[in-house]
Amino acid sequence: MDIPRETEIMLDYGRSGLKNFLEVRADYFDIVMASRPHDMEFFKKVYQSAAKGDARPKIVYDAEAFVAERERALREMKGKSMPHEFFNRRVEAEVGIANGADLVFAVTRVGAGHLQAGRGIRSDQVLGHALSCNPTEREYSERRDILFVGNLDEDESPNADSLWWFAEKVLPDVRHVLGDVQLNVVGSCRSGRVRQLAGAYVKLHGRVNDLRAFYETARIFVAPTRYAAGIPYKVHDAAAHGVPAVLTDILAAQLGWTSKQDALVAEDGCRQRVRGRVRRTVHESTVMGKRPR
Questions:
Q1: What is the model's pTM?
Q2: How far apart are CA 204 and CA 287, in angstroms?
Q3: 165: confidence class by pLDDT, cuts 50, 70, 90
Q4: Concatenated DSSP letters for the chain?
């Protein structure tokens, strides 16, 4: 992300220096925005002790995705359940973090629904993002490979889990049908589990600044996520570049997309019995050459 030159960046303060920073600039800010639960929790504790007099900026909280939603999906993927009462308590705890904020953002209507049901929330809105369409120019018949994009620094992250599952359980079947197809993986990768996948037909390219060259050669974009919450920006970006995508149903639901209209949906990758469906939808995508609208 490009930051305008007019934006002041306060480096080397860290959490230990935030209280003093807020005290020095008590009358300086009109709005303070905090993102995600752990940052908002910390900010509230520091701000309460640093605030002076009537000097109070508007506080905006970007709740992003609800962690409880991701935890429930992870449990279900492992064949376990999260009791409804326990899930509700987890959601209530996350909603409680937003108490005191003048405005709260969520990235999905599901998240906004949690906030609307909570007490003490003054105002909430769904905050999305906009991308310009910038389709690649190479003809579909000239494309060959499969593309995966995502941060892969942690073994237990949704991205690492989905890539490992796809490479180990689905890609061999896809190659059996389609032949010598390569999976290109783009994203920072410190996950030992993922790095072990590197080989003749799984190429780890690390982090790159411009994905266009990969979009130009990709026949399909895969997002085999098995548990997640929020909005998968990477899928929006692939669609903006005109690359057809194969998704699990959990991502399609988050995006509000329809199978065979906006993307090809392979149901839920968390069940082994769906492996054949994922293989068939990947094959269908490479044959049809459909692009998301």
A1: 0.72
A2: 25
A3: very high
A4: ----TTS----S-TGGGHHHHHHHTTTT-SEEEEESHHHHHHHHHHHHHH--TT---EEEEE--S-HHHHHHHHHHHTT----HHHHHHHHHHHHHHTTT-SEEEESSHHHHHHHHHSSS---EEE-----------S-GGG--EEEEE--B--TTSHHHHHHHHIIIIIHHHHHHHH-S--EEEES-B--HHHHTT-SSSEEE----S--HHHHHHEEEEEE--SS--S--HHHHHHHHTT--EEE-HHHHHHHT--BTTTBEE---TTSGGGHHHHHHHHHHHHHH-----
Phi and psi at residue 84, to the nearest 5°:
-55, -40
Q: ∠ CA 181-248-230 to the nearest 5 degrees?
A: 125
pLDDT at 129 over 70: yes
For residue 146, the model assigns a pLDDT of 97
Cα distance between residue 211 and residue 202, in whole Å: 17
Name the strands in the sheet holding 103-106, side by side, starting at the edge strand that comes first in the sequence: 31-35, 58-62, 103-106, 124-126
Tokens representing 67 are 């962690």
Mean pLDDT value of segment 177-200 = 94
Position of tokens 């992003």?
64
CA 98 to chain centre: 21
Confidence bin at 282 (pLDDT 50/70/90): low
CA pair distance 127, 107, nearest whole angstrom: 5
